[in-house]
Specification:
The protein is of the alpha+beta class and 92 residues long. It contains four helices and three strands; from the N terminus they run H-E-H-H-E-E-H. It is 50% helix and 17% strand. It has a three-stranded antiparallel sheet.
Length: 92
């Protein structure tokens, strides 16, 4: 396995990407720009925790992380039900 392949090799607990028809979910932290301006150190810690929760729940509901950008995450699921349950769980 070359170095590039090893870099992107999935971990043992990572979910395979869904195939065929998929459901995509995009998230965003509302008002994050103002929160960063108010207190960057607190926001940095909050965003780190935010992604921990998102990723832990992906494992529970069989979701696949496609990419992140800033505080946003794009995830894919095989079914609408998985996407809905994940969305509800991360908001709680």
């Amino acid at each position: 396995m070359c170095e590039a392949q090893a870099k992107f090799r999935k971990s043992d607990d990572e979910v395979d990407p869904p195939a065929g028809r998929v459901v995509l979910v995009f998230t965003d932290v509302e008002g994050s720009t103002e929160q960063w301006e108010r207190d960057a150190s607190v926001m940095k810690e909050a965003i780190e925790k935010h992604f921990v929760v998102m990723r832990e729940k992906l494992k529970v509901f069989g979701g696949y992380e496609v990419k992140t950008e800033g505080d946003a995450i794009m995830v894919a699921f095989q079914t609408p039900e998985q996407a809905i349950w994940w969305s509800m769980a991360v908001q709680e």
